[in-house]
Structure formats: structure tokens, C-alpha cells
Amino acid sequence: MGVKANSYQLARVGPVHFQPLQYELDQVKQYFSGKVMNAGCGNRDLTGIMKDYGAVEVINYDIASTIPGAIIGSLVNTPFEDNTFDSIICNAVLEHVPRIDDVMKELARTLKPGGFLVVGVPYLQPYHLSPTDFRRYTRDGLVELGELHGLNTVEVLPVHTIAQTLGWIAWEYAQERGGVRPYIVYPIVWLATRLFHRTDMALKNNANTFQAVFTKAEANARG
Fold it and tell me: Which GO MF terms are attached to this record (predicted)?
């Protein structure tokens, strides 16, 4: 079953609270319409949210997924034709994929001219496996990534607050160092991130995560 529209639930990693995913997606909801690919969906079905925003059809795609009806395959070489999707969401995925340039080529190839690609990529986050962890991007790095693959940047938005940034780093440090540190850090991080979890929109350059919106110009479409 997909995530229900208007279903706002906090996510948590250890003691670190994160705002509901829909809060993140609400700030870019105007970019989703028509046929949407949830690229690197994992087991998170966004069909309910996407259709609430105006999508007509949602394709869940990943190398492995328990979502009923999901299409299984690699992001490096997808089975979709050129210019298939009106919108593509690729959230918390690009930091984990090998051969990112090949993945970006596929996302750009399958996006319709005038369509939108929305990617969420961390900048100030600790090392975390899913199942690998390769990279982080600054705002400028994301803009360049899009340009390298023929995509124009519409906007780059921050996600999360300094509480998630410092709290998650502190928690991972405490676990790695061990001893009494996790017991001391856990309640502090739990409370701080529970109280402060809405995105701080003032964080233009030092956000926990950046959410970039790209579009594909007509001249970049393949025939």
C-alpha cells in the first residue's frame, strides 16, 4: 500500500527525529504531474502522496523492492524509453549508487522535455550505509551535476535543521567510540530533534540535505 496523502509521521534513526517525508515533498509538490517515476523507491511507495499532488500514474522502480507492482532493475540501465516521465523523484538515493554519472544519464534520458527531476541528496550527514555510501553534495555540486547531464537547475532547497545535522553526527560518533557516550548522547539528541524537525529555510549553503529541482530543455531531448 502506498503512503497515504496527508499522513504526517516523524521518522527516526536511533534517537534522531526527522520531519515527515511529506513535509519535504510539500515544498516541491508543484513539480509533480502526469506520469511519475519513483526512482530508487526501495520499499517506500509514494503513490498516495504523488497522486495527491496531481500525478496520474506512479511507477516504482528499484533494484529490489517489496512494493506490489514495482519494476525491478538497475538505475544504471533502465527499461524505459526516452522521454517517458513527466516527473521523476529520486530521494535519498544518489549518495548510495555506484556510477552516478550513468544513473544521471538514465534519469535525464527518461525525463520528458519540460519535465522535472527532483533529487534529495545529503550534504552534512554522517556515514550511513544503504547498502553503500559514496558521496555528499554541496549546493554548487548539485547544480554542476545537473549541468553535466544537460539539465537546468530550477531551484535548490534546504531540508532539515541544524538539530538533525549535529544530532545525527553526535549519535554516530557516540556509537563508534562506544563506552558511556551513547547513553549520554541519546536523550539529548532525542529531545533536540523531536522539538526542532521542520526545515530551516534560512540554511542556503549549510543544510543537512539539499533538494534540487532540475528541468530538461527541449533542445536536450533525444529524437
Answer: S-adenosylmethionine-dependent methyltransferase activity
Tell me the backbone φ, ψ of residue 12, rounded to 5 degrees.
Answer: -145, 135
Q: What is the pLDDT of residues 33-89, one digit of tens each?
A: 999 999 999 999 999 999 999 999 999 999 999 999 999 999 999 999 999 999 999
Question: CA 205 to CA 116: how far, in whole Å?
Answer: 23
**Distance between terminal CA atoms of the chain?**
36
pTM: 0.92
Where do the domains of the chain lie?
11-220
User: Containing H/E element for 56?
Assistant: strand 55-62
Task: Please determine, looking at this structure, whether the domain spanning 11-220 carries the CATH number 3.30.420.40.
Answer: no
Q: At what angle do helices 100-110 and 139-148 cross, to 10 degrees?
A: 60
CA torsion 102→103→109→115, rounded to 10°? -150
